[in-house]
Amino acid sequence: MESIEITARFDQQGTITPLKFTWKGSSQRVVSTGRRWEDESGLHILVMVSSGRIYELIYKREERCWYIGRTEPDRPMV
Q1: DSSP secondary structure string, 9-70?
Q2: Domain range for 46
Q3: What 3-state class would DSSP assign to 2?
Q4: How many domains does the chain have?
Q5: From CA 28, how far away is CA 5, in angstroms rounded?
Q6: Is there a domain that residue 65 lies in?
Q7: For the segment 25-46, what is each residue's pLDDT rounded down to a tens digit?
Q8: Angle at 37 between CA 57 and CA 56, to 5 degrees
Q9: Does any domain span residue 19?
Q10: pLDDT tops 50 at residue 62
Q11: Is 77 part of any domain?
Q12: CA atoms of 74 and 62, how far apart (whole Å)
């Protein structure tokens, strides 16, 4: 996993909503979030960016750090 810089909103109930992230020098704006789950490696959140690409973002609470997990290969916008 590779660490990333992220901007996220934490609401009063503690729900985390990623807004944008920077990976490999490129800033990506999150347009929607999907499935989320938590396991021993952290909180996983699937997000879609404006290009339509899907990323898995992982938040490790004990480290207070974000990581990029799996990414979907580039695909054309429909």
Answers
A1: EE-TT--EEEEEEEETTEEEEEEEEEEEEEETTEEEEEEEETTS-EEEEEEETTTTEEEEEE
A2: 2-71
A3: strand
A4: 1
A5: 11
A6: yes
A7: 999 999 999 999 999 999 999 9
A8: 20
A9: yes
A10: yes
A11: no
A12: 32
